Each structure stands twice: as C-alpha cells, then as structure tokens.
Amino acid sequence: MQVSVENTSDLGRRLTIGVPAERVESEVSARLNKAAKTARIKGFRPGKVPLKVMQQQFGASVRQEVLGEVVNQTFAEAVRSEQLRPAGMPRFEAKALEPGKDLEYVATFEVFPELELKDYSALAVEKPVAEVADSDIEAMIEIFRKQQGSWETADRAAALGDQVNIDYKGTKEGEAFEGGSAEGSDLELGSGRMIPGFEDAIVGMRAGEEKTAALSFPDDYHNESLRGAAVEFAIKVNAVRERRLAELNDEFYALYGVKEGGEAEFRKQVAGNMARELRAAIKARVKAQVMDGLLACHDDLQVPQALIDQEVDTLRQQALQQFGGALGKMDPRQLLPDELFQEQAQRRVKLGLVLNELAARESLKVDPVRVRSMVEELASTYEDSEEVVAWYYSDRQQLQQIESVVLEDQLVDALLARAQVTEKPSNYQDVMASGQR
C-alpha cells in the first residue's frame, strides 16, 4: 500500500492511497467462490455454478461491496501509519477503480490540533460566599403564595402590583397601527409587558375611567416602523383587581409535595431546596470563571470545522426539542440556521479539547463516590428517591452524562487548587440574580 500526505491547511490533510489490485481482486474472487457453493441459478445444479457465470451475475455488486470495505480498512491503516488523528468523517474521491488495476483514492479530512497546554496557574477566580437567610425563605414563600393566590375585585384606584382589565387603542399620527389595540386585556401593573410609560399611566385610574396617554416606542423596538415613534394610547379601565395571597395550610403545602409535618416541614423543605440552588449557583459561577480563563489561555487554538459542524447539529437538535412538534414540515436548517450556533459550538469544541488534554495530563478518572453523591442529590427532589437512583444506574446513557459532569467538576477542582481564588461576601438574592443574567 502506498500513502502520500499533503497539508491543505493548518488542520486539513489530503491522503492519496494506492492499494495493489491483488488485495481487491482476491477478495472478490473469494466471495464469489463462496457464494457459488449455495447459489441457485437456472440451468445449473446447486454448488455447480461456474465462476464466470457468478462473475457475470454478481461480480459488479460484490466488487462494489469489497471496494467500500477495502477503502475503509486501508484508510484506517494509513492514518495509523502516518500517526494522524482524523477529526470527523473523511471525504473520499476515487482516482482509479478499474477491475484488474491498482485501486487509488484520495481522502480529505481534518485532524485534531496539536494542543500545547498553556500556563493556567495565573487563573483568577472570585468565589461568592453566601447563605440562605430567613428573609430569603420568607420571600420565596411569598412567591409561592402569589403563584397559588387569586385576583379579587378592588373598589379603589389601581396601584403597582394590581391587575387591571383594559381596552386600549394606539394611534400614530392619528392612524391606528397593527398590534396596538385590544379589548378586555388583563395586565399586571409593574410587569413591564408594555412599552415604557404605559403601565405607569394606568396607576391611579379607577374602573370606568378613561385616559389618553402620549408615549414613545423604544429606539430598539422589534418593529422597525415603530422604533422611536411618538404615539397615543386611548385607555379604558374595565376593572381593578388586587392579589389575594394563598393561605398557608395543609392544602397549600400539599401542592409542593409536603403531605405531613405542616408548616415546619414545608419551611424546612423550602430552605433545603434554596440551599441546594445556592450551592449550584455558586458552583456554576466559579466553574464559568475557570472555563472562561482556560479559553482565554488558549485563545489561539484552532479547532476542526468538522467538529464545530457536529456541535452545531447537536445544539440545533436541542433547540428543536424545545419546540416539540410545533414546527410541522418546516426545514430545521432554515428555521435555525448554522450561524445561530457557530460561536457557541466553537467555544464548546475548543473547551472540550482543552479539558480532554487536561484530564489526560492529570490522569483523572471519574470518581464513583462523587457520581453516587450527584445522583443522590438529583434524586432527593423526588418523592421516591431510591427508585430514581436505581433508574440512573440502570440507564447507561444517563449515568454517562452524570459521569461527564463529575469529571468536569474534578478538573475544575484540580485547576482551582492552583488558581488564585478570592472569596467575596454576598447574599442569596445577588448570587441567584447573577446566574440569570
């Protein structure tokens, strides 16, 4: 077998591979001879079909099958002999396929980059230090009470936090514009659903009152024809409603999975869930800083486009799953073009390459104790946690996802041990808010 290598770019390679004709022809003959022993062809007894007839009947299809296998086998042999690491599937181009002549083809592909790990001892990480305070628990319980509460008619002027039912009609230079009118629309004042000034204009109005508010659309409004436009809204308030918080009772606690223990158990579980969320948010913020630092250290690392394309497809599939079956027969690539995911895909591929190299250098293996701990923490939010734990360990794909996260966490810990970590006093609200930005 003859192999020549050409660099088409920093990561691009073109292999020209020549395979002796004997390797292909001998395998074709062997398969035809084997098939002849059982072939049933009219005019010949079973097992007595001449090789020439087998060649006429099946030679082309058998040869095509053998060629495919030989190409795959010799390509694998060639990259091993040349010590290449292909990234993604190669593109094959035939140069010579004639029967009786040497096989020659070209394989074009990308290789993994030679990754030289940079010095990451100068990584600077700021770790928030916070606890769940009683006031945080009270605020969370109030959110739950609002979620399960109701709206009741109020015989007074509307205030922020109230819900109003309104009719409104928007005009621009005296003409109504599309999407600017509605009747019987419910609006919570202070929700920020409407353009700036709209909700403020309703504060102080009572049911039955009408008002015209002169407002302007934001300069970055999604509808170009309305960006920065001066408009007027004729508003009529049909009803004013105030929020009635749900009562703290057994029925309320049961909605959140607490069937015994009353208010004390409910507060205990709320506090426990908030503590878990806080730990996860702190961990995520620290991890994000480590990952950003690693990427900054390896900013000049080139990554194969084939791997980026694969990651783009993965991200698109994840996005499509969120739509469910709502897309119908729409082309996913038109709805979600590659450009939407290119930057994120490139970041993930680059980070994956760096982390894999780090894991190899640190000789890290997945810690089964940490895997078990993570599985149990995930399962603790379910009523039958033991059943959930068993499910994770019975599903290899799910468990591998946990193991991948654990190995990443182990890498982060190894990096943090050498990084410059500064603790910064914070609180639950600030930590959780920063994670949502």
Topology:
Blueprint: E1 2-7, E2 12-19, H1 21-36, H2 51-81, E3 86-96, E4 103-111, E5 124-129, H3 134-147, E6 150-153, E7 163-172, E8 175-188, H4 198-202, E9 210-216, E10 230-244, H5 250-255, H6 262-297, H7 305-323, H8 332-335, H9 342-362, H10 368-379, H11 385-394, H12 396-416, E11 420-425, H13 428-436
Parallel strand pairs: 5-11
Antiparallel strand pairs: 1-2, 2-4, 3-4, 6-10, 7-8, 7-10, 9-10
Helix pairs in contact: 1-2, 6-13, 7-9, 9-12, 10-11, 10-12
Properties at a glance:
alpha+beta, four-stranded antiparallel sheet, elongated, 437 residues, five-stranded antiparallel sheet, single chain, 11 strands
Could you describe the 3D structure shown?
With 437 residues, this protein is an alpha+beta fold. It is built from 13 helices and 11 strands. Strands 6, 7, 8, 9 and 10 form a 5-stranded antiparallel β-sheet that branches. Strand 3 and strand 4 (103-111) form a beta hairpin. Helix 1 (21-36) packs across helix 2. The protein is elongated, with a radius of gyration of 33 Å. It starts with a strand and ends with a helix. The model has no long low-confidence stretch (mean pLDDT 91).
